Amino acid sequence: MSHTAHIPSHRKPRRSASKMALRAGVTGGVLSTLAVAGASGAANAAEPVTQTIELPTLTTDLSSQVARSADATQQAAANYQLQAERDDAFAKAADQAKKDQAAAEKKAEAKKKAEAAAKEKAEREAAQQAASRSSERTTLSAASSSSSSAAPTTAAAPASGSVGAVISFLQVQVGDAYVMGGTGPNSWDCSGLVQAAFKQAGVDLPRTSQEQSTFGTSVSLSNLAVGDILYWGGAGSAYHVGVYIGNGQYLDAANPSKGVVIQDLSGYPASGAVRAL
Fold it and tell me: Are 189 and 178 in contact (CB under 8 A)?
């Protein structure tokens, strides 16, 4: 017999196999659950959740559209700038036009006033000249009448007073201006004055000195009568005409510096003469 046989066994009593199996199963199940949970947690911890946004890829067509849109925007901006510049230019032009119009109106008004003043002055001078001519004509008429009675002419005067009508008309025009092509009433050239004078006697003379130098009957310068038409130059090519008023004098529209005057034949002898009355 063992020397320890009388000592109670200190070992724990054995558990039954079934209990041990049950406990092992429970423990294994629990451990399995924990292992799965741990693994799942580790996996989740190892792989963080992220959200990926995929951007669209720019295709060639889209790039072209973007480029065209940019060009259109740039063109629109350029158009706006151009329109703004045009508007500004138009505004400046309109303002300048107003200024020019105002200046033109002011200038026109000044010109109108100047013309009115010049017209008033001309009318005043014309009135003074008319008064002066009237006085001179009265004196000349008296002198002519005296000369006619004192100095007999070389030919008998035509009847019916036609010569008197011509001479009276011519004397009234003394002092009028000479103007090339003038036919009155206040300015004359040589043939215009002679034509108008003979019209007073009912004679229609041609207009030019060339034609008048061949009108009527040719007379010699030594046989002149009052009212004969004198001409300078050749018959048919005369360059000047006047009318003989007796006493060696003639009346004509001489030139721009003299106007209508009475002159002596001795100072400017005529080339020939014709008688139309």
Answer: yes
